[in-house]
Amino acid sequence: MKGLTVAVTLGLLISSIVPLQGLPIESLVVNLRKCKCAKKTSSVFDLAYLKSVRVLSPSVYCRRKEIILLTKKDRKICVDPNAPWVQELIKGLTQRQS
């Protein structure tokens, strides 16, 4: 009976913490989602080797915007979203899609 009381108390405590923080329970237990880019470059990249561009918007798991370039050799390169050439690249891709 004592073990059940402890389990119920812990369950209530955990369930009351989650709404206060506004995060899903899995992020409290294990950080399953986090920023993809540990470091980024602002160096100009040769677009002839570019296979795809992935733009990740800020979220509760990563507060910054991330842009990941995938090369034809499947190498991932994180670039600075504030670099002028990156902004031009994104602008050009957006215009091409519309």
TrEMBL record:
SMART domains: SCY. The keyword Nucleotide-binding does not apply. Transmembrane segments: none annotated. InterPro entries: Chemokine_b/g/d, Chemokine_CXC, Chemokine_IL8-like_dom, CXC_Chemokine_domain, Interleukin_8-like_sf. GO terms for biological process: defense response; immune response. Keywords: Cytokine, Secreted, Signal. Residues 32-93 form the Chemokine interleukin-8-like domain. GO terms for cellular component: extracellular space. PANTHER family: PLATELET BASIC PROTEIN, SMALL INDUCIBLE CYTOKINE A. This is C-X-C motif chemokine 13-like.
